User: Fold these one by one.
Assistant:
Number 1:
Amino acid sequence: MSFVAIVLIKRAFGTQIISVWIQTTIINFPMAFFWQLFAAGPLVRKIFGKMYK
């Protein structure tokens, strides 16, 4: 997802694409981690738990 954001939003092409991608990944990691841990993960487990008993 970070790579897509770099290409579409930041328009980083060429020699700096790897460094910009690493920076964006590090900046996005805390938000993505806690979103997955506290919001998306439990919601998906609940939905799949009801679908596949």
Number 2:
Amino acid sequence: MVRFLILLLFPLLFNGLGPGDKEYKNPVFEPILADPTVVKADDGWFYAYGTQDDWGDGKGSRLIPIVRSKDLVHWDYVKEAFTEKPTWKQKGGIWAPDVVKVNGKYHMYYAYSTWGDVNPGVGLAIADSPAGPFVDQGKLFNSQDVEVPNSIDPFYLEVDDKKYVFWGSFSDKPMQGTYGVELSADGKSIPDLSKKFKIAAGDFEAVMIQKKGEYYYFLGSKESCCEFEKSKYHIRMGRSKSIFGPFVDQDGKDLRERGTGTVLLHSNDVYAGPGHNSRWVTDNAGNDWLLYHAILKTEPRVSTGANRRVLMLDKLTWKNSWPEISNTEPSLENRPSPLFK
């Protein structure tokens, strides 16, 4: 009998999984962590950051909420990233932060905007610790500076010892689209805004680019992010062997043309508007995991009226060098957890 139990438990022990904590179920954090970004810090924790939002708990609008986890499943609230709001713009919210470690410091590239803003922009804040406080460095650019409408949703990428920021959001104006431009060596400024390059059309937002194998994968979100249970946000993708593109979908269509992109994730009967994903994270077993937000259709808002965009987690698998999520939709049932032990 003892021998039988040992044989039964050996696969769990070999994989570093205990009998009580090997599964998870969405959402992994609530009530809100919209437009998430995640970074693995030197202290061994994963830190995730979200758009400024009022959670409806009487504590007001959080200036970039920070949560942390050891396993991507169990998240605890830490604090707000800012002690005071950046002042380089008269009004607006701090949206869609992207936090990365640059030259030993934690850089937060963020959007500053209001709904329908004709001149939103991208700023930078820096901290010594992933928990902040982040000290604002001011504006990198706004839409007028760079001549790109709706310049929000920044994303940082470093390739061949060069640093870049990508950005862009919904627009049908002539200069619409997702663009990239090279940053200075310290990541704090842009030497020449005129050297921007376009990689996707203006029906995308929330750009994320990550390399696996020989390809750079573009993941971006389309349609309405914030119409509660009617939200139609979803994630589409393309790939390229160069960060300058062309990025193409599985049909070979260039993402710089509107109406393109292969669907990676869409709504189901329970969750609306899954989108604005983070970088994927690879666990100790070599599996890739994607964090994103979605809206529970039966509880789509908090008391203040804000969209209740909860934090979600799902596993990426790979087929013919393309990522997939099971059923192309948020998971509902218990799933095996990421392995970090």
Number 3:
Amino acid sequence: MTTEHALTVPAPRAAGCPFDLPQAYQQAAVQGPAVRVATATGGECWLITHHEEARAVLGDRRFSSDAMLDNFPLMTEELRKMVSESRSTTEVIDDQEHIRRRRILTAEFKAKKVEALRPQIQQTVDDALDEMITAGSPADLVSRFALPVPSAVICLLLGVPAGDHDFFMDRSHTMLDFRAGPEAMMKARLDLMEYMNRLTAEKKQQPDDRLISDLLASGALPEEEVAGTGLLLLLAGHETTSSMLAMSTLALLRHPEQLALLREDPSLIKGAVEELLRYITIVQNGVGRVALEDVEVGGQLIRAGEGVLCMVSTANRDESVFPGGEDLDVRRDARSHLSFGFGIHQCVGQSLARAELQIALETLLRRLPTLRLAVPVEDLRFRDGVGFYGVEELPVEW
């Protein structure tokens, strides 16, 4: 098609509140649930902006998550090459094989197993805070707390030696940072894949009670797929939770009345985490799909082969589902948010992410009752060039 569109995605955020959505996305949501837009990569797609329609698309198997399909939103040739070279171990599939593999992982992330990890997560959080407090105020909450806690937890879950945590933080950060360039991103991915292959081989010879060893012992996946699965879980469980932890802290510091509610009643923390997931929505560029057949969405016919971008951020602020959705309210019932996706590709590690955020935020607020920003919010640098919204550093004092 050669039609011109008023909106090109991804759209930049305007200066001002870091939690305001790009104005272009807000305007698109007003136009309707499905809006035809241009992409910065030279293509076109449908932008799905409302909650009901985004949920429907994400749960509909007539829409594929295979990034190798033509017209998959925001795919550059460099990214397509990276996905192509990774498909042997990280292939995204939509059929019964995906469901089988998902069930294997879901068993590893059952709420019961995650609950059993809570004491270890608590210890990890306390250790990180002990080190940060000992080093003294002010401190960068990202490098001292928000990054090392999720990294240590996912490495603990997988069975990665503690001495390799820094390696994983560095390589995963580069792999997910589009600003690093395709060559650096690919090199980081290869480094991580080589490491996971070696680690998986070691676990086969010397098993422990962690996830990689469990997957190998089950025999449900070939050895090379166990390594690829471990890498996916590492990336998904590290960068996303890290970004959410830092941004959640910033959101609460920017909303002192909400922070006061949590300090007064810590039992609100579970609901507050759901509200923070909804309000922040770190998946800032949406969730891509390609229609496998003609489907009507929100009164608009989307034809087979056309790309779709579910804008989770606008869906999570849909006034018909979340009245006053532009505001943060830790007492809101926000459990229907789409921050973990929906349908067969919904995040399998969401129980772990919730537990980490609940424990980390509750402990941080309890142990540092005078926590505050050490610099004006205008001086903060935000990560707009990556798939997950975040802040580069978060200087705090207490």
